[in-house]
């Protein structure tokens, strides 16, 4: 099993917003995020998925072998949350992906990856 713990920061979320072009104020403006019923700024789902993809690629033996990644966003990630991403074998050429915050709550569920087996 491959694991990586990431503590999300406002700076990381803002950098992702800039790099991705997704400058939705729920990711950048705490006051705005609260005004629409969120607990404050939240991390982009695709930022979380990107970390999950990196962990899956490591477990698959390299990004060139990763063929498919599927996740379901199940919970919000706010600055200061530490999320542990993991990938473990779930059959031939398949991985089960998990992302659990510091409170033991899943932030991604029904998450899987498929990869090319060596020599195939």
What is the average per-residue confidence, as pLDDT, rounded to a whole number?
96
Tally of individual helices: 3
Looking at CATH, the homologous superfamily of the domain at 2-8 and 43-115 is Hotdog Thioesterase
By CATH reckoning, the class of the domain at 2-8 and 43-115 would read Alpha Beta
The strand count comes to 5
Please give the alpha-carbon distance between the first and last residues: 22 Å
Order of helices and strands: EHHHEEEE
Topology:
Elements: E1 2-7, H1 10-20, H2 30-35, H3 45-60, E2 66-73, E3 82-89, E4 94-101, E5 106-115
Structure summary:
With 120 residues, the protein is of the alpha+beta class. The chain has helices at 10-20, 30-35, 45-60, and strands at 2-7, 66-73, 82-89, 94-101, 106-115.
3D architecture notes:
The protein has 120 residues and is an alpha+beta fold. The chain has a domain at 2-8 and 43-115: Hotdog Thioesterase (Thiol Ester Dehydrase, Chain A, Roll). 28% of the residues lie in helices and 33% in strands. It has helices at 10-20, 30-35, 45-60; strands at 2-7, 66-73, 82-89, 94-101, 106-115. β4 (94-101) and β5 form a beta hairpin. The model has no long low-confidence stretch (mean pLDDT 96).
